[in-house]
Each structure stands twice: as C-alpha cells, then as structure tokens.
TrEMBL record:
Gene3D superfamilies hit by this protein: 2-enoyl-CoA Hydratase, Chain A, domain 1
UniProt organism field: Pseudomonas fluorescens
Record-linked InterPro entries: ClpP/crotonase-like_dom_sf, ECH/Chromodomain_protein, Enoyl-CoA_hydra/iso
Protein name: Carnitinyl-CoA dehydratase
UniProt key word Phosphoprotein: no
Length: 265
C-alpha cells in the first residue's frame, strides 16, 4: 500500500500520483494519511513552484474505498457519527484545507472516473486538464450523506449555486465537456494527449516568476472575501512587493532585449 501514492519532486515540480489502478484509484485510509502528510510537507517547502496531481491507470480516483466506509456502518448511531466525523476531520480537512492553503499553483490531470474525493481534488486545483474520457460525480446524496470534502464551498463559487445544487442534490455523472462549459475544467484533451498537455502547463508555471505567481494566487483567494476597494488595496500591496524582487527587474530587462526571462531558483 505504501506505493499506492507516488510522490516526486524535480526541477521545481512536485508530482503526486494515485497508484491503485486495480480499484480505480479508490482512496484507502492509508493513502489519505500519506496525501495529508505530503500536503503538509509542501506547505513548508519553498523550493517547489507547482504541484501536479495525476493518476496511474484509466481512472483518476473513484473516491473513498468502500470497504473502509462499510466498516464505519458498524456500531450505534452515536458511534457511527463520531467515527465518520473523526475521519472527515483528520483526512478531508487535513487534505483539502491543506491544499487550499498552498501558495503554489496546483494543476490536476484527470481521466476516467473522478468521484467524491477525486472530484474534490479537481475542484481544489487552480488549473485542470481533463481527458475526453473523464466522468465527474459527487455521489454523497446517493450514499445518504452530505458533502464532506469542501464541495459545498468550492462548487457554488465555481459554477454558481443553481448548478452546484444540481450536481450535489441529484448525484448525476457529467463529462469533461460539460465540466469545461461549467467552469470546472480548463482544457479537454484526447486521452492520449492528457499527460502532454499537463506537462506543458506545469513546465510553463515552473518557469514563471515564483513570487509573482504566488502573489496572483493569493490575490485570487483574497477576492472571495474582499470588497472591491479592499481588493484594490491588496493588489497595491502585492504589486509593490513584486516590484521589489530581482525577478521583476529580470522580466522587464528580458522584454526589452527580446528574450525569455531567467528567474531566480
């Protein structure tokens, strides 16, 4: 099971891969622990410039391991409530609040099934590349429980409350092209081109000005709760901080010299 999560870092790019294709990359509790710990590690790693989340096999992630969920149905109602609540607090909160706090761009490459927590990984990304084979599903209502990965927060902000209600209340599958139209996916690619496009995106981000990219992501995050006036103040502060970096000088110089900038490592 230790190989069910593959994590690598190279050239400023961190890669997290689900590697349990025989069960459509269903997330066991052990896998959740490892992902949570990796996210915490990335919060403290100043050398990484971008995180790519992807999977080995024909499916991205089919959600929680149903065997683990079945074991949570034992016991009294109070015991079940405590067990499920503890699991959500430890894993869902640890993983997805952790991802939300990362200041580096997150890219998700999705194919096949992206269900439950698998869907939420895509929602948690800043940029999403999807294969034409992708099928998204938020199945919680079908399983007699509510969202517990942050879907009720992120979905309305991405697709609007009406569409979020459709996705969460009806628990219906939808494909990559619908997800693109609704604002969940940036690019839909032929299945054989998924990795190529994802690599193109993360390479471009890794070659960008790291402080500026972190600043842009921070501003987008702040805009969720700021007034327009406050957001202008946030932008003023951030652009001044960017101007104080060597990367700003290099970018302007490179533009004048008609060459690609080379930013600090």
């Amino acid at each position: 099971m230790s190989d069910a999560i593959v994590f690598e870092r190279h050239g400023g790019i961190a890669r997290l891969r689900f590697n349990r294709p025989e069960v459509k990359n269903a997330l066991s509790l052990d896998m959740c622990r490892k992902v949570r710990d990796i996210v915490q590690l990335l919060r403290e790693d100043v050398t990484c410039r971008v995180l790519l989340i992807e999977a080995i096999g024909t499916d991205f992630c089919s959600g929680a391991d149903m065997g683990d969920l079945a074991r949570m149905t034992n016991g009294t109602p109070a015991q079940r409530a405590e067990l499920v609540g503890q699991s959500a607090l430890e894993f869902s909160h640890g993983i997805f609040l952790g991802l939300a706090s990362l200041d580096i761009p997150i890219v998700c490459a999705v194919r096949g099934y992206a269900v439950g927590a698998g869907f939420q990984f895509a929602l948690s990304a800043d940029l999403v590349v999807a294969s034409e084979t992708t099928q998204f599903l938020a199945p919680m209502a079908n399983l007699a429980h509510s969202s517990d990965h942050g879907e009720s927060y992120l979905l309305p902000r991405k697709v609007g409350e009406l569409r979020a209600s459709q996705i969460l209340l009806l628990g219906e599958r939808f494909g990559a092209h619908e997800a693109e139209q609704w604002g969940i996916v940036n690019w839909v690619e032929p299945d054989g081109h998924l990795e190529t496009k994802a690599e193109e995106v993360v390479t471009r981000l890794a070659q960008g000005a790291p402080f500026a990219l972190r600043g842009i992501k921070s501003l987008l995050r702040q805009s969720r709760v700021s007034s327009m006036e406050q957001q202008f103040e946030n932008e003023l502060e951030m652009v001044a901080r960017c101007a104080a970096t060597d990367d700003f000088v290099e970018a302007i110089k490179a533009y004048s010299e008609r060459r690609k900038p080379v930013y600090a490592k």
